[in-house]
């Protein structure tokens, strides 16, 4: 099966059927949640319990944004596929959703955003889907506007699936030209299955405080998802990686919710009072992971 990027433009590929298929696959849900948690970790926001305003670029049906909500942050999601955003609305994603093409720039005021993540989306910019599309110009518009809207010193963590080295280089080049510093972090570099690349960017020139993360599994240890046959020992694909001191296991705190019944009753009461209340769906009052 060819890569999605080679099959159709994103707004066509992620149609109603694909958007639903994507969001109901428990495997995809689990993988996207893990990647998003890692991206949030690499953002290295101050650990002060203050909610931040973040971007989720290529937010899709809200799987990646859910991790941001679960960690108490506000977010704005950009996506080019109306079907993906419809599913996000249905799932009652907590972010503000924008139907927009990141290749045309983000259109936000300077310095208003505390951080950005993008999960499995930015590689789409490397493909020209219309005669007017010039990937380099689109990358320039994207990184230029991303840089402008981030607060100085804020980070953007972009997990992406580039098709080849040229694409990787092109993406990094336009990030650096926009003014970002940083580099690529590779998790599980020896695994064909679990290997993931994150472009970790800091808004502004490198400084003593610039975070220098290190990829997981760099010393050859295998990811729990792997078995021996998955291990790919070809080091030639390694890119520049930074040092990182990983903090330990996260403590999850269980929080008691009021339950679906209670939420449905409250929604009904609000409706009776004439408020505009979203319809009840299978996602209403679903269990969420605990914040920590
Ligand atoms: C693999 S999905 C990932 C969705 C979500 N981040 C997640 O983790 O589940 C990639 C998303 O990128 C979006 N996308 C691709 N090109 C885009 C563009 N130029 N502007 C905005 N979104 C785009 C697609 O519509 C799709 O929803």
Short description:
The protein has 292 residues and is an alpha/beta fold. Helices cover 32% and strands 16% of the residues. It is built from 9 helices and 7 strands.
Q: Which helices and strands appear, and what pairs or packs with what?
A:
Blueprint: H1 4-7, H2 10-13, H3 16-24, H4 26-43, E1 53-57, H5 63-70, E2 74-79, H6 82-90, E3 96-99, E4 113-119, H7 135-149, E5 150-159, H8 165-178, E6 180-187, E7 196-203, H9 260-272
Parallel strand pairs: 1-2, 1-4, 2-3, 4-5
Antiparallel strand pairs: 5-7, 6-7
Helix pairs in contact: 4-5, 7-8
Bound molecules: S-adenosylmethionine.
Residues 10, 14, 32, 58-60, 63-64, 78-81, 84, 101-103, 119-121, 124 line the site of S-adenosylmethionine (SAM).
Structure commentary:
InterPro entries: Bud23-like, Bud23_C, Methyltransf_11. It is found in: Cytoplasm; Nucleus. Belongs to the class I-like SAM-binding methyltransferase superfamily. BUD23/WBSCR22 family. It holds the Pfam family Methyltransf_11. One of its GO terms (biological process) is rRNA (guanine-N7)-methylation. The protein is an alpha/beta fold and 292 residues long. The chain is built from 9 helices and 7 strands; from the N terminus they run H-H-H-H-E-H-E-H-E-E-H-E-H-E-E-H. The chain folds into 2 domains: 244 residues, 3-Layer(aba) Sandwich (Rossmann fold), CATH 3.40.50.150; 38 residues, no CATH class. It has a 7-stranded mixed sheet, sandwiched between helices. It is globular. 32% of the residues lie in helices and 16% in strands.
